[in-house]
Amino acid sequence: MTVDIAVLISIIGVLLSIATFFVGRMTAAKTSGQEYGVMLTEIGYIKSGVDDMKKKMEQSDKRYIDLAERVTALEETVRIYHKEGHV
C-alpha cells in the first residue's frame, strides 16, 4: 500500500511538472505575441511621424522655392531700374 501511494505521488508530481511546462510555454508565447504587436504598433506610429515630417519638408521646400523666385524677380527689377538710370 505504501508503495502504491509513493508511485501515485510520483506520477502526480510528473504530471504537474508537465502541465506547468506547457502552461509556461503558452504564457511565454502569448507574452511574446503581445510584445510583437506592441512593437508593430510603435513602428506604425514612427512611420506616421516620418510621413508627417516629409509632408512638412515638402511644404517648406515649396515656400523656399517661391521665396527664391520672388527674390530673383526683385533682383531683376532692381537691375533694370539701375540700368535705366533712376538712381
Structure description:
This protein has 87 residues and is mainly α. It has one helix spanning 2-83. The longest helix is centred in the middle third of the chain and has 82 residues, at 2-83. It is rod-shaped.
How many DSSP helices? 1
Q: In percent, how helical is the residue content?
A: over 70%
Distance from N terminus to C terminus (CA atoms, Å) equals 123 Å
Output the helix-strand order.
Answer: H
Gross morphology: rod-shaped
Percent strand:
under 5%
The largest pleated sheet is described as: none
Count of DSSP strands? 0
Judged by helices, strands and strand pairing, the structural class is mainly alpha
Radius of gyration: 37 Å
Weakly predicted, low-confidence segments: none
Mean pLDDT: 89
List keywords for this structure.
0% strand, 87 residues, 1 helix, mainly alpha
